[in-house]
Design brief:
Heat Shock Protein 90, single chain, 2 domains, five-stranded mixed beta sheet, five-stranded antiparallel beta sheet, alpha+beta, binds adenosine-5'-diphosphate, Beta-Lactamase
């Protein structure tokens, strides 16, 4: 049985009302006068970001947040807590939330142990001859090459119309040239990363990168009947890094989101991208989809090379994303959404 405590929280006045069990779960003496900042100090940084985001903009406005948080208690003990809260139904405008906090540490730890042994097993199954770098090249070049072929075919069609199609043919050739440049950039940056070199350090505006990547995949979204929206925080500091590599991270996450929506027919096919400032001097980027989500037991394997649940997958996308993000001193992780689909998050340090 999990230990469960109740709480009330007024978002207007900041008042917290906790049952004794809730105090115990969070490692405070019952009756302690608490403000939210005290509680945040006990929660792992990434999870505070999630909590804040769930409160600012709940995915499910009626049901409210349902989160799994990791706590570090004084003395270093780690606890896993599931927190469910919903707005007071009698008077939703009061800002009052009521909820329950459950200590799920023992089930979370056994899940973690199980996943670690699965991960060890999976790592032994890596295919050899092509190697990770070969698979990486094949994976990342697929998109610019298919764009070159598609635009080449379109160009031939426009040219067969004679002068009537000249303008269109010219823009097709322009797209071919820029895809060719992208392919060259990709090869260079893979060579750099594979040889352990640090990423290039040019200043990058993350919102501009998100917008240009959204535009790059515009046709893919359209073809798959997907609405892609974004909420980009204004005034974010720049980050320092390799633009091509970081764009590849966004492309991989967005392509995965598109694929997870492929069989969705009973709800809107949606992708949502957001940028914001996270705790400290980090930028947080999230890519959320309304797709199928992943199996929780796959989570520790998903970021390993060659792990795939798709018939035609290579299992390289997320492994590449993690390598790139970590080479930029950031972190990448994923969570299933409460309702549908999954959200992938990554952080990058702001440029000094
Ligand atoms: P591939 O796309 O070739 O399978 P990836 O490394 O990009 O390789 O992804 C590994 C696995 O992670 C996928 O096969 C899928 O099971 C899971 N995955 C990745 N992104 C998502 C997503 N947005 N929704 C659900 N599952 C995902």
């Amino acid at each position: 049985m999990s230990m469960a405590g109740f709480f009330g929280w007024n978002t207007r006045t900041g008042e917290l009302t906790w049952s004794n069990v809730t105090y115990e779960i969070f490692g405070f003496d019952p009756g302690t006068d608490l403000v939210l900042a005290d509680v945040y100090k006990r929660i792992r940084e990434e999870d505070v970001v999630l909590l804040r985001q769930a409160l600012d903009d709940p995915a499910d406005k009626e049901e409210g947040p349902d989160l799994r948080l990791r706590l570090t208690l004084p003395g270093g003990n780690v606890k896993y807590v599931r927190v469910r809260a919903h707005p007071e139904r009698r008077d939703p405008s009061s800002g009052q939330y009521v909820g329950v906090a459950m200590d799920i540490t023992s089930s979370a730890l056994s899940e973690l142990e199980l996943n670690t042994s699965r991960q060890e097993l999976a790592q032994k199954k890596r295919p050899g001859p092509i190697g990770e770098v070969g698979a990486w090249v094949a994976h990342d070049l697929a998109q610019p090459l298919s764009s070159i072929v598609m635009n080449g075919q379109a160009c031939i069609r426009w040219m067969s119309m004679g002068t009537a199609g000249t303008e269109e043919a010219r823009s097709c050739v322009q797209r071919i040239v820029s895809s060719g440049y992208r392919a060259t950039d990709i090869i260079q940056q893979i060579r750099r990363l594979a040889s352990g070199e640090k990423p290039a350090t040019a200043p990058i505006f993350i919102n501009e990168l998100v917008e240009s990547t959204e535009a790059l995949l515009g046709e893919t979204f359209e073809k798959n009947h997907i609405t892609c929206t974004s909420s980009l925080a204004p005034g974010l500091p720049t980050i320092s890094g390799d633009r091509t590599q970081l764009q590849q991270v966004l492309i991989n996450l967005l392509n995965n989101a598109v694929q997870s929506l492929a069989d969705v027919g009973d709800r809107k096919r949606k992708i949502f991208i957001a940028t914001r400032m996270s705790e400290g001097k980090e930028l947080l980027v999230m890519v959320e989809d309304s797709g199928t989500g992943f199996r929780v037991q796959d989570l520790p394997l998903m970021f390993s090379p060659f792990f795939t649940t798709k018939a035609d997958g290579m299992g390289m996308g997320l492994a590449i994303c993690r390598t790139v993000v970590e080479a930029h001193c950031g972190r990448l992780w994923a969570l299933n959404n409460t309702r549908h689909g999954a959200t992938f998050y990554f952080t990058l340090p702001a440029a000094p």
